[in-house]
Amino acid sequence: MRVSGFTFLRNGQVLGYPFIESIRSILPIVDEFVIALGPCEDETQAMIEAIGDSKIRIIHTQWNEAMKDRGYVYGQQKMIAQFNCSGDWAFYLEADEVVHEDDLPKIRSAMEKYLHNDAVEALVFDYLHFYGNARSYLWSPGWYRKAPRIIKNSVRSYAPDGLFWLVLERNKIGRYPQAALLGATMYHYGWVRSEEQMNLKSEKVQRYWDKTVTKIDYTDIDGSIIRRFEGEHPAEVKPWLPECNDIFQANSAHSLTRKEKKHRWMLKLERWFGLEMSKKHFKLVP
Q1: What is the number of helices (H) and of strands (E) in the chain?
Q2: Which end of the chain is more exposed for a tag (fewer CB within 10 A), N or C?
Q3: Distance, CA of 248 to CA of 129 (rounded, Å)
Q4: Does residue 211 register a pLDDT over 80?
Q5: Whole-model pTM?
Q6: Is the dihedral of CA 133, 47, 24, 142 positive or negative?
Q7: In sequence order, what are the beta bridge partners of 138?
Q8: Considering only CA atoms, which of 79, 24, 81 is closest in space to residue 53?
Q9: What is the pLDDT of residue 156?
Q10: Which domains, and CATH codes, for the chain?
Q11: What distance in Å separates the CA atoms of residue 117 and residue 104, rounded to the nearest whole number?
């Protein structure tokens, strides 16, 4: 069995991504790691090369600056990397996602288990979305709790907005992949970087969604969905994380948006009826 890791990246250093920690976190279980690297104005390429691992392969790409439709340029970049993967499995990481070292044997074992099972096209991680600091994460149906990050390279798949896969049927109609649960966790740190870096990222990327840039204030959130993290972070990311012992505090005067009110009701329904109502971009295989 051969496994390819892959991602796409641009200006990872200046935008505050833990991309080095992300890449390093799965190097032990992949045979190659493909990076579609767009034009950078920082030291991103030098930092990747400094990892010094022969498994890493950089593909230099151009971004279509005229493409402003729903983040499709992200899908283009993701697929450039994926189409250059040579493994049986393609393991995708966003540049702010890190895998825990304790989960690596479990992940590798699942890929071996389902390699020849045609009913399983992808493998799904549980998610922890950290927010504000390393001691706080979000628990709400508005933040997906599970997502596929590993897909068979033999499956006819594509990612229209860069994040989730669609599988093309023979009639060319897309559907979410058939997937099995890994029982492993993906640690998502995008909202732990500084507000300055997050606002810079927003300024640079929102144009690809044809959206107006609005200033991000981390405290401007429904504080009831913030929970305290009591576990251990992946070893790779610990040096990157800012020190913090207290849970992140939202603005107590924050006015709930329509979506936040909806998500509060969904949380109540989940508690009352034992449901799980977050968005699922996969179909679970029995």
Answers
A1: 6, 14
A2: C
A3: 13
A4: no
A5: 0.96
A6: positive
A7: 129, 226
A8: 24
A9: 95
A10: 1-286 (3.90.550)
A11: 21
Residue 83, SS3 per DSSP: coil
The token pair at 16 is 């505050």
Residues 6+ apart with CB under 8 A from 205: none
Q: Which amino acid does the sequence have at 271? A: R
Tokens of 78: 């993701």
**CB count, 10 Å around CB of 41?**
9
Backbone angles phi, psi at 89, to 5 degrees: -115, 145
CA–CA distance, 171 with 147 (Å, rounded to integer):
25
Q: Reduced to 3 DSSP states, what percent helix, strand and coil does the chain have, rounded to the nearest 5?
A: 25, 25, 50
Give per-residue pLDDT as tens, 2-61.
999 999 999 999 999 999 999 999 999 999 999 999 999 999 999 999 999 999 999 999
pLDDT at 62: 96
What pLDDT, on the 0 to 100 scale, is given for residue 203?
A: 85
Question: What would the DSSP string read from start to end of 213-255?
Answer: -----TTSS-GGGEEE--S---TTTTTTSPP--SPPPPPTTPP
Distance CA 48, CA 115 (A): 30
Q: CA 36 to CA 78: how far, in whole Å?
A: 7
Contacts of 48 by beta carbon, 8 Å cutoff, 6+ apart: 9, 19, 20, 23, 35, 37, 56, 58
Q: What mean pLDDT comes out for the span 92-102?
A: 98
